[in-house]
Amino acid sequence: MCGIIGYIGQKKANGILIEGLKRLEYRGYDSAGIAILDQGEIFPLKCVGKVHELAKKVQSHFQHSGTIGIGHTRWATHGNVSEKNAHPHLSNGNNFAIAHNGIIENYLPIKAFLIEKNYKFYSDTDTEILANLIDYHYQKEKYLSFAEIIRKSLLHVEGTYGIVVLSKIFKDEIVAARKSSPLLIGLGNGENIIASDAAAVARYTKRVIYLNDGEIASVCSDNFSVITLGEGSVDMVYHELDWEIGDEDLGDFPTHMLKEIFEQPSSIENAMRGRFTEDASSSKFGGLSLTPQEFRSVERLLFCACGTAYHACLEGKYLIEKYARIPVDVEYASEFRYRNAPLQRNTLVFVVSQSGETIDTLAALQEAKRKGYPVMGITNAVGSTIARATDSGIYQHAGLEIGVASTKAFTSQLTILSMLALLFARVRDMDDFSGRQYVYALKTLPKTIKEVLKLSEQISAIAEKYYGQGRFLFLGRQTMYPIALEGALKLKEISYVHAEAFPTAEMKHGPIALISEESVCIFLATQKEMLDKTMSNIQEVKARGAKVIVITSNTQIAWEVFCNEVIKIPETHPGVNPIVSTIPLQLFAYYVGLLRGCDIDRPRNLAKSVTVE
Ligand code: G6P
């Protein structure tokens, strides 16, 4: 989704804004722009397409040396993808320039009001009305401070926003404000950077504050102050970013997705670090503020999430119900928020989100809290909106994930959910010995994943044979079903090929009608107890002409006789087996996408973090 950057300091803003926009590219966008304040005037520059096109334009004819400016990557909502709709937008008379994330829902009546006041509009966006509304309030009450003008303007606005505003009237400050759209201020030495995402500031400073909803910040080069939109008080919390410089660089890898797939041994290690009990028979999470008694009194769990995180939750359901025997519901956050779901007492709610900013997940969280349920979070982005809004939670510590298709964040969520299954099981019925076996399997997981990553070449060769096929079906039973769903999602996201997933036995109840010679069926056959049944299902699709790829840890069966391709992975504990089985599917999606010539790190139409409904 859209990205925002603002810089005020001693250096030329141009370069820093372009660099910041590059760090925001992974969020997904279709046009970009900057505006610089130079010698008392605001100069905008925009383009459709990638940030490197904007950088070229800057290089060739935009030599403004101003040290204050704002920038934006736009993911179109109101108005088509065009230069005139790209941000920043200027007010009539060029007093103000604004970059905006979110949606102004009442933009039409405001626009009508401003047209009556003789304001002209040059774009189809909801954002341009904000620029002119700000100018209107400035013209009306010229004695007000910059932040007060923004406050007065925002009081008329319904919807969501993260904004940065630049002005030629107020030459030494940028004003930023948020409502349901993330914004943070990176605090530097004689310079400050405002951004919608820590990725854009991590290179300059690790010290940040996150703005809360309803806060308006006036940011100068060496200080800042915050007021609130309403009566509420300012609640400022300083955070230290835990990202390493270079996390966002590719190193020797051709794409972020491949780099992140190969980072999984360490991201999984980081998800587990310091989270096992001393006797190595259970797990523990410092961030979960629950006593063993409270853990025991939980009667039901509800997980809410979107996309890949939803698949992780579904896997959590299988594992928690299997090991801890607690009933678990899993809901798409976007459904839960409007469904008025009846929840029983003693339900503990978890929201899971890599970015910690997905608006549907945030809304589900707020709905559960409104109903009085304790809500825990599992998030990767420290200090993100969801992390701050939950009662307590677990950080993934997977590091920055840039590839739009989530890989290492998914397996890190799976690892944490598997550890939660163990924790809930150990305060209930799981014995000490079984607990130790489980912990051992988790601790050796990074080593096992390294082994599976060695299959990369084999999987690349398999992708080469099948990447031209028109239809892919992913099939798995029980704990392999969510993994099949995630395998199909990865393939769709990265290669735009038609892929679906079903519980293996469900296939004959409809999907089998899709089977033809054009089809490739990918079977997850890694559970001992399910092998006979899975083999029969393989025969059924073979008989109808499908190509079969099987992923298995069984070495006794002559799979080669009746499958086209066999990918052998190590046999592991059932609590970690789903994590291990995910890796070949990620690699397969990656290589198919590559062979189909797709933009792996920036797949079409997708955004890394979806901050609109
Ligand atoms: C978007 C991304 C998905 C992601 C989903 C949830 O749709 O494209 O890859 O799984 O949002 O994101 P979250 O940050 O909440 O895990």
Query: Which class do the helix and strand fractions yield?
Result: alpha/beta
Strand line-up of the largest beta sheet: 3-2-4-1-10-9-11-14
Which residue ranges are poorly predicted, with pLDDT under 50 across at least 5 consecutive positions? Answer: none
The beta-strand count equals 24
Short description:
This protein has 613 residues and is α/β, with parallel strands linked by helices. It is built from 20 helices and 24 strands. It has 3 domains: 3-240, Glutamine Phosphoribosylpyrophosphate, subunit 1, domain 1 (4-Layer Sandwich); 250-443, Glucose-6-phosphate isomerase like protein, domain 1 (Rossmann fold); 449-598, Glucose-6-phosphate isomerase like protein, domain 1 (Rossmann fold).
List the defining traits of the structure above.
single chain, 613 residues, alpha/beta, Glutamine Phosphoribosylpyrophosphate, subunit 1, domain 1, Rossmann fold, 3 domains, 6-stranded antiparallel sheet, 20 helices, 24 strands, 21% strand, binds 6-O-phosphono-alpha-D-glucopyranose
